[in-house]
Amino acid sequence: MRVLVTDPTYKHSLAAIRALSKEGHQVQTFGRKLGFAHYSNFVSKRNFQLANESIELQLIRLITEEKIDFLLPVSAQMH
Questions:
Q1: What pTM, to 2 d.p., does this model score?
Q2: CA 71 from chain center: how many Å?
Q3: Residue 79: predicted pLDDT
Q4: Which strands make up the sheet holding 70-72, listed edge to edge?
Q5: Contact call for residues 27 and 3 (beta carbons, < 8 A)
Q6: Distance from C-alpha of 53 to C-alpha of 43, rounded to nearest angstrom
Q7: What is the rounded distance in angstroms from the CA atom of residue 24 to the CA atom of residue 67?
């Protein structure tokens, strides 16, 4: 399963990424800041938020293009 985890600046993100990857899922991250979870060995691809486009449009495009099966939003607000 392809999973997209948002906001890699939180330690919860890293825990989710590690657990999902260990279960055999392909995990990608999405966020504006350079969160430490972006650099985990368990991340298959890092996606960075663009400042000039809405988060919603970026997520829709990313989910479609990368054929994401599951979106795991970690925080209520993207930084």
A1: 0.90
A2: 8
A3: 52
A4: 45-48, 26-31, 2-6, 70-72
A5: yes
A6: 24
A7: 16
Could you give the 3-state DSSP secondary structure of residue 31?
strand
Q: How confident is the model at residue 38 (pLDDT cuts 50, 70, 90)?
A: confident
Structure tokens at 1: 């399963």
Q: Give the count of alpha carbons within 13 A of 59, CB side only.
A: 18
In terms of Cα–Cα distance, which of 79, 71, 70, 72 is closest to 13?
A: 72
Q: H/E element holding 27?
A: strand 26-31
